[in-house]
Amino acid sequence: MFDFRPDPDTPKPEAYRQLVDAAEALTSGEPDAVANMANVAALLWDFLPDLNWAGFYRVVEGELVLGPFMGRPACIRIPIGQGVCGKAAGDAQTQLVEDVHSFPGHIACDSVTNSELVVPVRRNGEVVAVIDLDSPSRARFDPDDAAGIEALSAAIADRI
Ligand code: SME
């Protein structure tokens, strides 16, 4: 059994360091990408409060295709460049969106979502996936969250 319970009073940067360590431990030595993405999605869901969706979209033949996630069923295919996920993948840049309703072209998979953080996963310089976090709260994510998920993305890039 894997039990990861960070102290809720831990400052965010340290808590994310612990999350990255936990994700590395969970995926270490496991070559199956689906298993690793599934466990990382579960870890994010368990670790981060106030989410309604956490998971992966993978770049497959030039578009984003839904990967392992926690939350409600979601849009399956997203063109690169469209929505928050497609922009993160197309620009290879993290998207920190305080209010998705103000984001041009936001794709509403779940009407309860109000803010979103999408971080590209790069391998050998190419975006191979994005990590997508959605929250029902406005401005749920801050730059510490972005930095933490970017560190997670780098840590698991070779394992998904
Ligand atoms: N809102 C995303 C689509 C994916 S779902 O939120 C799971 C977007 O605009 O790309």
Q: What would a concise description of this structure say?
A:
The protein contains 4 helices and 6 strands; from the N terminus they run ααβββαβββα. With 160 residues, the chain is of the alpha+beta class.
Q: So how many helices?
A: 4
Pairing-aware structural class of the strands and helices? alpha+beta
Write out the CATH superfamily name. Answer: GAF domain
As for the CATH topology, it is: Beta-Lactamase
CATH architecture classification name: 2-Layer Sandwich
- Runs with pLDDT <50, length 5+? none
Indicate the radius of gyration in whole angstroms.
Answer: 14 Å
Q: What portion of the residues fall into strands of 2 or more residues?
A: 25-35%
What does this structure look like?
By secondary structure, this protein is of the alpha+beta class. The chain has one domain (12-159): Beta-Lactamase (2-Layer Sandwich). The chain has helices at 12-27, 33-47, 83-91, 143-156; strands at residues 53-60, 63-71, 77-79, 95-97, 115-123, 126-135. A hairpin with a 2-residue loop joins strand 5 (115-123) and strand 6. Helix 1 (12-27) packs antiparallel against helix 2. The protein is globular. It binds methionine sulfoxide. Methionine sulfoxide (SME) binds at residues 53, 74-75, 78, 83-86, 106-107, 109, 113, 116, 132, 134.
